[in-house]
Design goal:
Blueprint: E1 2-6, H1 13-23, E2 28-32, H2 35-40, E3 43-46, H3 52-61, H4 65-74, E4 77-80, H5 82-85, E5 90-91, E6 97-98, E7 105-109, E8 119-127, E9 141-147, E10 149-153, E11 159-165, E12 167-175, E13 178-181, H6 189-201
Parallel strand pairs: 1-2, 1-3, 3-4, 4-13, 5-7
Antiparallel strand pairs: 5-6, 7-10, 8-9, 8-11, 11-12, 12-13
């Protein structure tokens, strides 16, 4: 099986690759910005770190917008961190950035509070809906996050996980063959590796 990790020059994609290679040692796991290879892969992982404006610019420069949209409609697709936020319509970041509009909703900044922003570190994830990617992961398991913005989805039926950091916010979405998380499974030890294992074995 071929698992493509979309590499558009933003974020530590090597750690994602190493984590997936660890749980899928017999599969072909590769980083690529080649639209043809992404299109031919059996599964696609869409990670991201940094500012959304720069990420969208990089996706356009690499000619990856179309193939990501196609993959998100056709095959098992995992978004990680900014790879979740980019699936939505619009972000407040960078003075306003248009996303991929694969899912309906916006990305907004955490409200001002006494809590430190960015939200950084370990936090519990409440499983809002049953999903194969939660297999063998206990409800309220802890995952590692680093972000200042969060998703406000238009359709509550896509919410699969939530976290509280001053407010309750969506940290995992699931729709058809798409599963995307705000946290970093590749940095989340046992439960993160279990989620990646579940993705590798996911029958959509």
């Amino acid at each position: 099986m071929a698992i493509a990790i979309v590499d558009y020059g933003m974020g530590n994609v090597r750690s994602v690759q190493k984590a997936i290679e660890h749980v899928a040692p017999n599969d072909q796991v590769f980083l690529t910005d080649d639209a043809k290879l992404i299109n031919e892969a059996d599964r696609v992982v869409f990670p991201g770190q940094g500012a959304m404006g720069a990420c969208m610019q990089a996706l356009n420069e690499h000619g990856l917008v179309g193939v990501i949209k196609q993959a998100a409609h056709e095959k098992p697709f995992l978004g990680i961190c900014l790879g979740l936020q980019l699936l939505f319509d619009h972000s407040e970041e960078n003075g306003g950035t248009e996303g991929l509009s694969i899912l309906s909703g916006n990305v907004v900044h955490f409200p001002k509070s006494e809590l430190k922003i960015p939200h950084m570190g370990w936090n519990t994830v409440k499983q809002v809906s049953d999903h194969p990617l939660w297999h063998n992961i206990e409800d309220n398991a802890r995952f590692y996050s680093v972000h200042s913005y969060y998703v406000k989805e238009s359709d509550s039926s896509v919410v699969s996980g939530s976290t509280n950091y001053g407010i309750d916010f969506t940290c995992a979405i699931a729709k058809d063959n798409i599963f995307a998380v705000q946290f970093h499974p590749e940095k989340s030890q046992h439960d993160g590796l279990q989620l990646l294992t579940n993705f590798v074995n996911w029958k959509t």
